[in-house]
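Example record used in the benchmark description.
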Amino acid sequence: MTGIRVRFAPSPTGALHIGSARTALFNWLLARHHGGTFVLRVEDTDRERSTPENVEQILDAMRWLRLDYDEGPIFQTERAERHGEALQRLLDDGHAYRSTATADDVRAYKREHGAEVGFRGQPENAGAVRLHVPDGETVVTDAILGEVRFDNAHYDDPVIGRADGTVLYNFAVAVDDLDAEITHVVRGNDHLSNTPKQMWVLQALGAEAPVYGHIPLIHGPDGKKLSKRRGAASVQELRAAGYVPEAVVNYLALLGWGPDDDATVMSVDELVARFDLDRVSRNPAQFDEKKLRWLNGVYLRALTAADLTERLEAFTGRDGLGPAVAVSQEKIHTLADFWALAGFIFDGPGDDPKARERWLGPDGAAVLGEIRAALAGVDPYDVATVREALEAIVGARGVKPGEIYQPLRVALAGTTISPGIFETAALLGREETLRRIDAALDGRHPRAA
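Model output (structure tokens):
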């Protein structure tokens, strides 16, 4: 395909949720795969909810996902004059007519002609503007769903303009797609019912319809549609939870699409090279945060220590994290995991009463006493010598390593969770390690020591 032009057209009514983000991504990948143009159009006709703050949320999410657009943002409200011109053209050409028919009039029409028969009005001199529905059927050759047929006889002549001259959604969308020379409209399956109405507008304007492709919706773990009302995460929420954009993009691409070799971990360049509509599934995708979390961990472990440190320092607002990052990288799956795992290195031990009761009783105190004596004498004090000293105690006592390592871990971290115990003790340094051991042996919390 050459000269492909696609668009992402969100309504700025809140944060950008993952379903919308996936739609943006699929359009972006399609454009980049074919060397085409990606257009951003903001459908801001809901003036109460389309605030500058909500528009910025969309732009912010797209920047974070690194989905750059070639044209836009185009604001639908700024095109009111063009919409009015197109509406008048359809009136002048006889493809549309004014009608004062109310909802009660439409119901009365259906009682007379049959509930399945679409309303057909008579032209009047005033009222809203309705589009004449053409006879026959409308066939959508969908790039994802295949051929979808609509019997036009069942559709009411749709209102495309209000009596005050403002236009309705399906009319504005069709005109905007026409003017932007959009060749492919890729969007969620919930827009499928809008497609014939938009095609009728384009037909009345003497234009060809673009290629449509409707992506099956995303379901939650319960198998029901994932939506804003059903806890769908926004892009901003994923960022705040410690996910990185590379992993989110990779995961979103796999929600309803996949390469022929079932690869899972793919860079943006690989996604661009492989993506096309013929591999988009017709079946709903399921959002699985466990899989996203796993994939995010893969990306974190693939980062250089310097890159991960930079991201973690930005995420936590703390400096000087490099040494702790180096000993934590293999154990974290999100940026948010880091502080829960290694924050004690900087802020002192946590306070897990159950861990202290289990590991710092009389037996644990005896173990800590041996550990303290051993670590006080190792030279040099580093990971290798700490390991050697602790393993010697394990061997001498003839116990499982955890019986030795866990009392030390609780003394140093305040909990049973930490980076590797040898690395942790070496990172804290001899003086701080012994101070925390002493506090544990005295029954004091090290932060108060």
